Amino acid sequence: MKTPPDNEPLSRRDFMRATSALAATAFAGELAGATPAANAQDAAPGAAAAKSSAPAPRPLLTKSEDFYDVSKGNPKPHTITGDALVQARLTPESWRLEVITDPFTSDLVKEPASMAKQLTLDDGTALDLPALMELGKTRGVKFLKAFQCLNIAAPLGQGLWEGVPLREVLRLCGPLRNVRRIYYWGFHNNDPKQIFQASLSYTQAMETAPGELPPFLAYRLNGEPISLKRGGPVRLVIPWAHGFKSIKWLQRIAVTNDFKAMDTYANQNNDSESHLKTAAYIDHAPEKFRAGQPIFFTGLALSGLSGLQRVEWWLHRVEPDAKPVAQDDATFRAAQWTPAELEAAPADWSSVLPAGVSSKDVLGFDPKTGKPLTWPLRYSMISWSATLRDLQPGKYEFRARAVDMNGFAQPEPRPIAKAGKNAVEVHKFEVA
Fold this sequence. Notes:
Layout: H1 7-16, H2 18-31, H3 36-42, H4 47-50, H5 82-87, E1 96-101, E2 114-115, E3 127-128, H6 129-139, E4 141-147, E5 157-165, H7 166-170, E6 176-177, E7 181-186, E8 197-201, H8 202-206, E9 216-221, E10 224-225, E11 235-237, E12 250-256, E13 279-282, E14 288-289, E15 295-302, E16 310-318, H9 330-333, E17 338-339, E18 341-342, E19 381-388, E20 394-403, E21 425-431
Parallel strand pairs: 1-12, 14-21
Antiparallel strand pairs: 1-3, 2-6, 4-5, 5-9, 7-8, 7-12, 9-10, 9-11, 13-15, 15-19, 16-17, 16-20, 18-19, 20-21
């Protein structure tokens, strides 16, 4: 995943932040001198209310078509059509997965990995989609997960993912020996320069701590087959990791006794073992507000490896000729942070989850009550909001940050960007 041009994050945020954009339109219209009648006729229903009441939280599930796309490839695999799609094994009927021993083991490996049975195209044993879904009837898992790219400073979307744990697929191959890592690839036009690979340790693939979520082969998103654009028919989903670990268009898994994480992202100077970071993100908002009106800021909060304790905000009035505030300077250290309002867990999950899916069957929920065991769920995201009142005319800076369950405030405890972007965001605005 490459960081998109500067103009792309805004467009992505716009579709995820429709409610905030609605409020922005109302304020901008007033400041531009538009008449209330004109605004009332042209604005969508509810625009007038957006000026005096806090926006509603965003839906917990992002529609498949609304995920921000960071697909790689030239052409991108999801743009292939016709017979080429079949030949690429990217249709539900033609999809096949090979599970083999690593053919690229380095000279440092003295005892190669082995398995009792390999699943290959050549002998017709490669796993097909009906067989994977049949395994899912008894070994399947479902859970909510937010996707986030290591090098993009905003979430890509959140969905209810369904599939089969990776360990269950590896067990189809019988006993494994001398295995230290699991490599996996998706389809990338069979061009060596476009190959994108990731890996897990044997332990990460086979064992999951109680309450944690396993890596798995996903074939449904929000109750529907995963679209080609989202990486279907089958993709890997690694709950705790940034998106580069969740390979799209999965086609090959290889076990190896090599100890090196030869991930594409590791070779590009990134931390390939980075877990999702707890972080808060500010929605797109106006740059000018009218004095005397309440001002609403909203955003998303992602619960990473260390969970989410709270989101807090700081409003700084910018005095004329004052020096810009920098992270951890004297002004920043003296800031008084105020807790934001966090979205509450839904009382009725049947109105959130796809038809026919019970929260009792979703990992992270109590199988008896259907209530989430923690809120927000680990590796998921929720909305937050803050209300500012009685601001005097002038220029301001609004910042928001997340605090994890260990008490670390964003960007701590991992401020290094190569482990995932999570800088404290700031929105500059004027009250007139």
